[in-house]
Write a structure and sequence with these properties.
Elements lengths: L1 H14 L6 H32 L3 H21 L4 H20 L2 H33 L4 H10 L2
Helix pairs in contact: 1-2, 2-3, 2-4, 3-4, 3-5
Length: 152
């Protein structure tokens, strides 16, 4: 997402006549990605430190959820990459915190929760795709061509 935002800024600058430079694009890219890494690292390490002090699976599941969502919201508020922040916080919670602060039973509970959440959200995305396909497909010629290509 971060590269897309930077490239969009370059194209917007060129289209509006302001111009764009490689140095400016590089600076923006490093700021957006680096800021996301920093925010995710801070939130992830904070969550990992709390997880190390707690031994209750429901609280630890809640902490990992808050770390993922909180890092995204904080990063977006600071105009840096929320996706990079979420991935960074997730890696820290899933590797560092899981190994250093979670009991084996808590680790299984957390992994089961995230596995189920991924399954449920993927199911919703596929359901939305099917609803859109059935809604747009037959009534729109261009929509029909789009869906027939993307379904392959």
């Amino acid at each position: 997402m971060a590269p897309a935002v930077v490239f969009f800024g370059i194209i917007l600058g060129i289209a509006s006549g302001q111009g764009a430079s490689v140095a400016g694009a590089t600076r923006d890219f490093v700021r957006v990605v680096g800021g996301g890494l920093l925010v995710g690292g801070i939130v992830g390490m904070g969550a990992a430190q709390v997880i190390r002090r707690v031994d209750e699976s429901m609280i630890e599941i809640t902490l990992t959820t808050l770390a993922a969502y909180g890092s995204f919201v904080a990063a977006e508020h600071l105009h840096v990459s929320g996706v990079i922040a979420t991935v960074t916080a997730g890696v820290l919670c899933g590797s560092y915190a899981a190994k250093s602060g979670m009991s084996p039973s808590t680790r299984m509970a957390v992994e089961s929760f995230w596995e189920y959440l991924a399954f449920a959200l993927n199911s919703l995305v596929l359901l939305a795709h099917r609803v859109l396909k059935s809604t747009l497909g037959p009534s729109s010629r261009s929509g029909n061509r789009f869906w027939s290509r993307s379904a392959r």
